[in-house]
Amino acid sequence: MLTPFQVEKPRTRAALMESHPAFLPLSVARMIWKRKLAIGVFAIASCLLTTAAVRRLPSIYVSEALVLIESQKIPEKFVSSTVATDLQDRLAAISQRILSTGRLEQIISAFNLYQSERQTLAPEEVLTLMRKDLSIQMDRGGSGKPGAFRIAYQGKDPRIVAQVANQIAELYIDENSKSREGQAQETSEFLDSQLAEAKGRLDRQEAALSQFKLKFNGELPEQEGALISTLGRLQVELETNRDILNRAQASEAILESNLAAAQAALETPPSITGETTAPVPPAPPRKPSDELQSQLSALSARYGPAHPDVKRVEVELARQKAAEAGQPADVVIPKAAPLPERSTTASSHESPEARDQSRERLATLQAQIIIAEKEIAFRNAEQSRITSEMDQYSARVSHLPLREQALAQVTRDYEISKESYHSLLDKKLAARMASDLEHGQQPERFTLLDP
Question: What percent of the chain is helix, strand and coil (3-state, nearest 5)?
Fold first, then answer.
């Protein structure tokens, strides 16, 4: 420590070098030159020891198997593959199966690998060694897709190493084929089950649709035109039947009036006075055959000659004409003929022939009244039948909106089931073609290119 009265002496160069020593390049070279013999001996000994150590190490051989990934030969626009798994994912799954404990143990036993290691190491450690000696490397193809992959294995025996690499490559090829065929088979089986379910649903919907149409036959929307046409026909038939009924009732009234007049004339005693009595004859009425002929003409013009009513009126007309043909010429049907004039010169009693004619006329009128009553009864029954049918058809027409709504729901379910069935059927056919493609060795596959 310097005091205020002390002055520091300047140091020389030698003193500075002694206080701060340094290794200059020249000094290092001088030092190596002085010890060159020892350094040379050490280097030669190190080389000899390294060479000896390397010679004592076992030889390690590496074998590679190049597996080419071939694309599907048939274009996918014609036959689509059912294997949609990505190639790298499929390779990862195949690697998991091949590098499993069971597979590797089979390979180790088949080629008698790791003989010394199996004596000292546990089985899991031996499997770990093999997994380290085995490597898989992907080679990218066009558009970034894998074009091939290499399987490399290293070991001490070159022949065994090559066999192991080829064996593992064959395992990859077999596993890929099995995987693709398995996926195609699973897809086909799944579609089979779905198709069976869809077929069952379609059958049930079809049966429901058929049952609905059978249950509500005559009330379906597509029958609306027929229903309206039938209602129109029944309306015309009702009007025609009403006209015939009115004429029959009028004819019956005339016949009953004529019958009453004939009975009164038959029961009235002859006049005893000298005055001539001449009853006013009634207007000549139409015969029943004329009425039936008019009905026949109207029905034939409306319904045609094959209609049941036309046939029935023809039979009645023929019967009536036959009945009228058997009557005397002066008898007029359905009204009684004019009564003969009575004079004071006539006898006090009618002749037997006149009374017989009066009785026959009464019988004819009574028969005609019976026919008219039957006609009226038949026409009343027809009136009720036609009215009932019109009510039924009107009710069917009124039910059309409800039936249309219900039918639309049943039909919609049926169409959905039908569309689903046909879609699954198309997919099933496509899956069958894809399965045939897989079995035919024409799909995407692995090929051992460089064993």
Answer: 70, 10, 25
Helices (H) and strands (E) in the chain, counts: 12, 4
Task: Please tell me the distance from the alpha carbon of residue 165 to that of residue 159, in angstroms, as a whole number.
Answer: 10
pTM above 0.85, yes or no: no
- Which residue's entry shows tokens 């009126």? 313
- Angle of helix 36-56 relative to helix 25-34, nearest 10 degrees, comes to 70
- pLDDT tens digit sequence for 157-211: 889 999 999 999 999 988 888 887 888 788 888 888 999 999 999 999 899 889 9
Tokens standing for 222?
């597509």
Nearest to 244 by CA among 192, 302, 195: 302
Per-residue pLDDT tens over the stretch 37-88: 777 788 888 887 777 666 665 678 889 888 888 766 665 555 666 566 677 7
Q: Which domains does the chain have, with CATH numbers?
A: 61-197 (3.30.1890), 221-266+286-337+353-407 (no CATH)
Asked if residues 399 and 278 have their Cβ atoms less than 8 Å apart, the reply is no
Partners of 342 in the β-ladder: 277
pLDDT tens per residue across span 282-312: 445 556 677 677 667 766 766 677 777 777 7
Determine the 3-state secondary structure of 67 from DSSP.
strand
Q: What pLDDT does residue 153 have?
A: 93
**Would you tell me how many other CB atoms lie within 10 Å of the CB of residue 421?**
20
Q: What is the pLDDT of residues 369-390, one digit of tens each?
A: 898 889 899 999 999 999 999 9
- Dist CA 63 CA 135 (whole Å): 10
SS3 138: strand
Name the residue type at position 362: L
How far apart are alpha carbons 382 and 114 in whole angstroms?
110
Residues 439, 8: Cα–Cα separation, whole Å? 104
